[in-house]
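Why do we bother with holo predictions? Because pocket geometry can differ from the apo form. Keep that in mind while you read this record for 6-diazenyl-5-OXO-L-norleucine.
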Amino acid sequence: MDLSAIVSEIAEAMQSETDRGAVATYIPELGAVDPDQFGLAIWQPDGEVFAAGDADTPFSIQSISKVFTLTLAMREMGESLWHRVGIEPSGNPFNSIVQLEAEHGKPRNPLINAGAIIVADCLAAGRSAGEAQAAVTGFVQRAAGDASIAINPAVARSELLTGQRNRALAHFMSAEGNLRNPVEKVLEIYFAQCALSLTCRQLALAGRYLAMEGQVNDDVLTPPHRVRQILALMLTCGHYDGSGAFAYRVGIPGKSGVGGGILAIVPGRASIAVWSPGLGPNGNSLLGTRAMELLAARTGWSVF
Ligand code: DON
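The structure, written out:
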């Protein structure tokens, strides 16, 4: 299989697509991103990275960060995390509030906004907001083996000033007793993690531990059974109300972000990062999803 040719062909095909979706504008800083970009990077266990298009352009990973914070929270809390957040798909948009009232402030899963806010609250225990941000950034740097990875402060500020919907989710969960720290402290951590800025190449490296049973070289980031649990959640919940379609069309556990990125993991075989800023109707990258579909077809990497 000539992966170098495959990634180039996919990048070329995506460059000429005219329907590129729409960039997210509810976070003003993301609305300014040029939708005409596409990047793809594939890391393989022998260490080789195949990249094409804008694979070295940094973008806002947004909800993809939820995978990294979930890894940290599971490490710190184990199964007790599931008292605070569920493990079922929501079938609703990423920022939906409807289930929270009927379900007493316990979000369906850790990959929707409400669930990730609970995870951020868990990481806030015994830490200042700054310490929690440093723990998350440090984890991503360690996973990627790249100390230059950082939060884009303009993106974090942009969401801090406008994120009233997340504020509503957090206040509701606080009213239900499921948020232990002050709303603004938790949101500061959550908005900062979403504003982590990575290139496709860096993101593919950051995902290596998920492809390799939790380990990068000799560094154990999390045990193998946790990786299997995280990948199961990515497959069932990683694309929100588009998770079924992604599993059907691509067949690889993935996590999307409203910045247009997708991290997809083929256990034992590859960590894949794809990015194109324009989104489809469920808030997932339109061309990123299309590219993943082509890649799965060309490689036979569906997990099924
Ligand atoms: O909380 C938000 O709305 C954003 N910071 C992240 C949402 C997101 O990435 C949804 N993904 N497709």
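The first strand starts at residue 39 and ends at 43.
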